Amino acid sequence: MVLKVGIIGAGGISHSHAPHWVTVGAEVSVYSEVGAESLANEFGLSVASSLDDLFENVDVVDICTPTTTHAAIAVAAIEAGKHVLCEKPIGRTTAQANAVADAAHKHGRQAYPAHVVRFFPEYVALKSAVERGQIGDIAVARYSRGGEGATSEWFFDDALSGGIIIDQMIHDIDQARWIAGEVVRVFARQNPPTVDGAVPRNVVAHVTLTHASGAISFIQGVWGPRGMQFRTSFDVAGTDGTLRFDSTSPAASTVDENLTSVAIESSYLPPTSAEESPYLTQIREFAAAFEGGPPPRVTIEDGVLAVAIAEAARESIARGAAVEFDADAVLGSEGALA
């Protein structure tokens, strides 16, 4: 049976979803207030005349719209009996994200956030090395992500995007938790600050996470001037060694004579130089889950907690102090940690 997928939204990120649904053999339609015909013509999709039309004719809804619309569309799709894939973040706020999770649990539908960095080969290699105990117990991890700032105006409206922490740094917040485990304390700073809801166009933010294990993760996010090269990196130190990656270097390096080499390809987001695009790997894994296969590596609870940690970072900035964090309290009785 052919999986029927409906994409909502035809902006930039939809171009990283649409062709890969076609590659995995899905029948794809698109609904968008702007750009649906162009997206459909580019990738051979059909165009839905309305949201109700889309819901009526698909099995899965793939949400590629601006952040502030994610939760409402996701809940509507779930209540219409559809499975959901939603671009990160799953909601603009923790309450919105939990509303999506609650709806999925209530109606027995699958819903996942598109945390694509979990599918990038260098981060997969890091996760695998940590799980094998290759660097021992994690002590300190550093993650950075930055490039020229966003181009659409809504990114600079804090009420719509959540600023750099919820929009951009949520990727590495999710990575930090994936690699080092649950978070118990959050401290953050941003310069220049967001004033009267206006997010600076050039801004740097730092988020420090204390994990239940005692490990510390330092995360830096940058929205820089036009022309700034996009760069991601990590440096994860454990009791037995260190793993490093820098997308601007020819290759990552491992540091410790007891470590064997870890193959990590040089790539950046976007685009990617991996043999298979991480966006395709992501879609392939979600498609398999929607068709009754094994669950994917990222859950709805992961999406909720990423938003909650990002919100805690924003609270820390507002208060000028560290914020205690409790994953069980965030998820409540409905959630179950993956």
Write a compact overview of the structure shown.
This protein has 338 residues and is of the alpha/beta class. The protein is built from eleven helices and 14 strands.
How would you explain this protein's 3D organization?
The protein is built from 11 helices and 14 strands. The chain is α/β, with parallel strands linked by helices. Mean pLDDT is about 90; it is low at about 250-270 and about 335-338.
Helix-strand layout with pairing:
Elements: E1 4-8, H1 18-23, E2 27-31, H2 36-43, E3 46-47, H3 51-56, E4 60-63, H4 70-79, E5 83-87, H5 94-107, E6 111-114, H6 121-131, E7 138-148, H7 158-161, H8 163-180, E8 183-191, E9 203-211, E10 216-224, E11 231-238, E12 241-246, E13 253-255, H9 278-290, H10 300-319, E14 323-324, H11 327-331
Distance between the termini: 29 Å
Helical content class: 25-40%
Counting DSSP H or I runs of 4 or more residues, the number of helices is 11
Q: How is the quaternary structure best described?
A: single chain
What general form does the structure show? Answer: globular
Radius of gyration: 19 Å
What's the story with the biggest beta sheet?
Answer: 8 strands, mixed
Topology order in helix (H) and strand (E) letters: EHEHEHEHEHEHEHHEEEEEEHHEH
Report low-confidence residues grouped into runs of 5 or more.
Answer: 252-271, 333-338
Extended strand count: 14
Q: Taking all residues together, what is the mean pLDDT?
A: 92
What is the percentage of strand-forming residues?
15-25%
Helix/strand-derived category reads: alpha/beta
For the largest sheet, list the strands in their spatial order.
13-12-11-7-10-9-8-14
